[in-house]
Specification:
The protein is mainly alpha-helical. The protein folds into 2 domains: about 5-160, no CATH class; about 170-295, no CATH class. About 60% of the residues lie in helices and about 5% in strands. It has a 4-stranded mixed β-sheet with strand order 2-1-3-4. A hairpin with a 5-residue loop joins β3 (about 225) and β4 (about 230-235). The longest helix is centred in the first third of the chain and has 23 residues, at about 5-30. It is elongated, with a radius of gyration of 22 Å. It starts with 6 loop residues before the first helix and ends in a 5-residue tail after the last helix.
C-alpha cells in the first residue's frame, strides 16, 4: 500500500517534534536534580541532532532510553509522556535513512535517496495514537507531543493533492546561486508526480525565448515561475505557487505563507535574496548534478 509521504515532508515533522522535545528537555532541566539535569542535557543534545537529521538513527536510539531513564528518576513508572515519546522514536527508526532535508543527506546526487514511509509505521502510529489518547482520558498524563507525532505519521499527505495536477509549469532559477539550486532540488525531489515542473536557468536560451528582453530585465534574478496559464510569478508569490504545486504538507505550508500580507512575505524573500550569494557557495554548473531521470526535466 503506497502513501503520499516524501522525505522532505517527513523531515518537517521530525524537525518540529524533536525541536519541541529539545525545548522540553531544556525547560525541565531547570530546578531538576543533578542526575536529571545531566540526563536532560544529553536528551536535549540528542533531540537537536535528531531534529536536523545528523546521525539521526543513532541519536534516536540513544534518546529513547535517555527519556525513559529521566522518567524513572522523576518517579514516572507508568505509561507516561516519556514512554510514549520513546515509542515515537522507535517508529522513527522504522522509516528509511536520510530523507531529503536531513543533514546526513547533504551532497547526495539524488535528492530523493531511497527514502520511503513504510505502511507498517503508519499503522503502528495509529495504534499508538489510540493508546496515547486513552492515556490522556484515563490518567493525569498528557502526552501531547507524542500524540502529535503519532497523528502526523498516521496521516497521509496524499489526502491534500497538489494544485494544478496534470499540468506542467516552468521554474526559472539563477544558475549561479547555490540557494536557487537548492530550491530546484527540493521541487524535483518532492514532486511525486514527476511531471509537475520543468526547470531552466535564467541564463539559458529557454528563458530568453520565453520572455522578451524588456520583460526579463524587470524580473528578479532569483526564482521565476511561469504558470500553466502563462502568469509570471516572482518573489514570495513564486514560492507559494511552488509549494501548492507539490501538495501535502508543502501545500499547507504554502497556504500559511499566503495568509501573510504580501509586503511582509516579499520583505522576508528579499532579505534572504540579498545575502544568498554570500551565504551559499556558487555552484560549478548552471544545472545541479542530478540522476538521469531528474536531469531530463531541465531545459538549456
Amino acid at each position: 500500500m503506497g502513501n503520499g509521504w516524501t522525505g522532505g515532508q517527513y523531515s518537517i515533522v521530525r524537525a518540529c517534534a524533536c525541536s519541541a522535545l529539545a525545548v522540553r528537555c531544556a525547560v525541565h532541566a531547570i530546578g531538576a536534580s543533578a542526575w536529571e539535569c545531566a540526563l536532560l542535557a544529553v536528551g536535549c543534545a540528542l533531540a537537536l541532532s535528531t531534529a536536523i537529521g545528523l546521525h539521526e538513527r543513532a541519536s534516536a536510539m540513544l534518546l529513547a532510553p535517555t527519556l525513559i531513564a529521566v522518567g524513572f528518576l522523576g518517579g514516572e513508572r507508568g505509561p507516561g509522556q516519556v514512554h510514549w515519546l520513546a515509542l515515537a522514536l522507535m517508529l522513527h527508526l522504522g522509516t528509511s535513512r536520510a530523507p531529503f532535508g536531513a543533514w546526513d543527506a547533504r551532497g547526495r546526487i539524488d535528492p530523493r535517496g531511497a527514502w520511503r514511509m513504510p505502511s507498517a509505521v503508519q499503522i503502528a502510529a495509529l495504534l499508538f495514537l489510540i493508546g496515547a489518547l486513552a492515556t490522556f482520558v484515563l490518567s493525569r498524563s498528557r502526552p501531547y507531543l507524542a500524540a502529535f507525532w503519532y497523528a502526523a505519521l498516521a496521516w497521509d499527505p496524499a489526502w491534500i493533492p497538489a494544485r494544478g495536477v496534470g499540468s506542467t509549469e516552468r521554474v526559472y532559477y539563477d544558475g549561479a546561486c547555490g540557494l536557487c539550486h537548492g530550491v530546484v532540488r527540493l521541487v524535483l525531489a518532492e514532486d511525486r508526480s514527476g511531471v509537475r515542473f520543468r526547470c531552466a536557468p535564467l541564463q539559458g536560451e529557454t528563458f530568453a525565448r520565453a520572455l522578451d528582453a524588456r520583460a526579463r530585465q524587470a524580473l528578479p534574478d532569483s526564482v521565476v515561475v511561469v504558470s500553466a496559464a502563462g502568469e509570471v510569478l516572482t518573489r514570495s508569490n513564486a514560492i507559494v505557487h511552488l509549494l501548492a504545486g507539490l501538495g501535502g504538507l508543502w501545500r499547507l505550508l504554502g497556504l500559511a505563507l499566503h495568509a501573510l500580507p504580501r509586503p511582509l512575505r516579499d520583505f522576508g524573500y528579499d532579505s534572504v535574496a540579498r545575502v544568498r550569494k554570500r551565504v551559499f557557495a556558487a555552484p560549478a554548473e548552471l544545472c545541479p548534478l542530478l540522476p538521469p531521470d531528474l536531469a531530463a526535466r531541465f531545459d538549456p
